[in-house]
Amino acid sequence: MPDLIPHSQPPPRFPLLWWRHRHSPLLRPTDRLRAALGLVTAAAVLLTAPALALWTASVAQHRFQQTAHQQARDLHRVAATLLEGSPHHPEPGSDEARHTRYPARVRWTDATGRTRTGTADVPGGLPAGATVDLWTDDTGALTAPPMQPGEIRNRALGWSLGAAVATVLTGFLAYTVGCRRLDRRNLASWDEQWTAVGPRWSSPG
Fold first, then answer.
1. What number is the average pLDDT over the span 41-54?
2. What is the pLDDT of residues 143-157, one digit of tens each?
3. Which of 115, 122, 135 is nearest to 89 (CA)?
4. Domain check: are 164 and 125 in the same one?
């Protein structure tokens, strides 16, 4: 006598994407809509995220380059004298030591010829009386130097990654909202069906 119960089948290789497409008498129209929504959302994110990331990086780099050019025109390089020595880095000669800066009191002369004092970040291991190059604005106050190409590149990359992440989160949010609406539709349909069928099940035979 042939078996009446079919043998179990292995799960699909990609269950999250394809299990809803299998033929089944229990498959509802909303299940197909949910699967279509997931595929459309995934395709939209995969196509949009890279393009938006590249466009954002290009726009951000252009804007930062304009800012750097403006800073190069408006800012002034001055030679400042350390009024106190800066601390020594624990690993002199290392890459970290070359990039680490320490606050120290300095004296400089602004564009009007006025001698001023303040605190600036300087390399480590400099004695009092050493000279460092700093940047001032139009008022003669110390300020950060103009953005360098590496800083511009890193900032543009940050904006690019942010745009890609925002695109993915937007797609996930849209899919979640769509699924919740489909779930509410299912619940409403079940309520209607139970209203029609429930009394016959609960009434005495």
1. 92
2. 989 999 999 999 999
3. 122
4. no
